[in-house]
Amino acid sequence: VNSEKYLNFKLRFSNDDSIVGRSMWENEGLARAAFVLVEWANNMGGLSKRFGEEQLLSLFVSFGLGAIPGLRRKYIQKPGGDIRAHSKKGEHLLTFIEFISSWEFRVRSSLSFAEIDGGILTRGEWKAFSEASLTSLLSLLTNHRLDLPMSGESGMATKLREYEPRVIQLPDNVINSGLEKVRDALSRLSECKDVKLRKVNSKLVMVSAIGSSEQLRVLSTYIYPPAPSRETVTLRGRIDAMATFTYDRIM
Q: Phi and psi dihedrals of 167, rounded to 5?
């Protein structure tokens, strides 16, 4: 019943005149990504009375607007009364989770929401949530996907799964200069159309594609490969070994 849950979530903002509320109401992609974020956070058990859904959503929108001091990359624009699209919802969600899991976020002395007409948090209310999200980020780095509480494969549940970050881990040198070959190989192996790769950081690459359910299933077997054998995982460690193992399977 993810459809009902999502609609109830969206309706929360129907009469909300704040920047967060108007952003959610005008931008369907942002609202869906925010719903996945809230579902993930509640499933993870990281929210509390001091740092709950309201604070998390304010932070997510502030991050998207480039309103976090020291982080000025924008993923969305301030609401302006028109319906908007969100072409980078997956990247927005993934980089936000990476940010809230970081040591730099955990040790901040305060969080200000002044640019979205909000207040200030000064007592480290976000630290417990950040520590909990770090475990999920480590799972993402090793399993290449978030553990989202989505059930069923039809209707709104399927649409919401489109906003789960799909990432592939590759060696640094490949990310820096070999992504075109990887894209061509993934297109050939899966027969998906419009395969796109976008660098997220030195370890992760965002993957998007268009195809049938069977083509996307095949693509996923290369994005999320089985774990390498113990013989393959040498002193380089699991993370580096997974990147090389994934690349070797594709090429």
A: -125, 150
